[in-house]
Amino acid sequence: MSEMTREKSGRNWLSIALWAVQIFLAIGYAIAGMMKIVSPISDLALEMAYAADVPEWFVRTVGVLEIAGAVGIILPALMKVMTWLVPLTAICFSLVQVTAIFIHANYGETAQFLAINLILLAMSLFVLWGRWKKLPHQSR
User: Fold this and answer.
1) 89 Cβ partners below 8 Å, 6+ apart?
2) Domain ranges of the chain
């Protein structure tokens, strides 16, 4: 196999992996956002202790922002418009996870949430690296 064929094959696998992670992040954040928007705060507080300690508008706003992120990690790439929003969204998702790690630690929920926070952080950083440096989406 020639060097150029190997490079193109590697780029294809990277593209598939990046798309898969982007879709996973979009679905995960959309579900989490919808939960924060439609669930009663008392139900959310059973799963996320901080929900009982912050104003309701804060929890609902986080939900709206998570849904916006779910759209921002996919839609610009699909439409090939403002594709710079994809790595920007990945940065925001990374910041959300770092913040979540500290919030959950503050509430003694590290054992419950640390693994998922670190996985989501790694996925967000992978998309950031891939879509900013290695294989950015092209705008029209």
Assistant:
1) 69, 72, 73
2) 3-134
